[in-house]
Amino acid sequence: MKLVTRMTVAFVVAALAFSATVAGAFTLRAPQIVFSSVALQGNLTAWDGAINANTDQLNGQAFSTGVTGNTDFTLVLKNAGGTEIGVYNTLDAVPALNQLFPPAAVAGWSVACHFTATGVLQATQFDQNFVNQGTVGYTGVDRTHFGFYISGPNGTWYSQDGRNLGGKAQVLTYAGTQAGGNFGEWFECFEASAYNSATSTFTGSVVVLQSVQPVPARAGTWGALKASYR
Predict the structure, then answer these.
(1) Range of the domain at 116
(2) Which residues, 6 or more positions from 43, have their beta carbon under 8 angstroms from its beta carbon?
């Protein structure tokens, strides 16, 4: 059920102490994903000149709300590819898909997300002119273990590699840098087609996240992941 509301949203700027704690929770991907990186590097350089698309990929396949107990996070759409983007519970064997950005969203759209005391994720959408597009509430979203998905004509793909075809990466995570003016933020770069080292660009949709932290990734194949639920 969608409820149109009036909200004044202040985008969350992570405190320095929070950012330092989060930065220490990362590991780099090993190995780094090989892809056609020219286009994404151009974007990242424009947004944050200190990120290297080929060597700064982080193993942030699942996320949690802030270590300070903050129940709010925001997302800003930097690139849009006509696809649906949302969140899912990374610990669920068959997760529900909770849409945050509709396929019609364009660059500049944003979503303000809030976890209520009763466990509802409220997501309020704003268009590129910051006009409120309404609020939707999702029950059962795990604020301590959630990931991101992209869904379009070429399939549905997840931030957890093990859920994708062949266990391949479909979402790359980069940390914003202090030098680039984005310290404490994360760039989520989505590939909307099956990964191919020669043709994948990870530029179809790019989202900037604020006030979340990565959760250590589960190693192994999707089969091994499913086995952990038994």
Answers:
(1) 36-227
(2) 78, 79, 203, 206
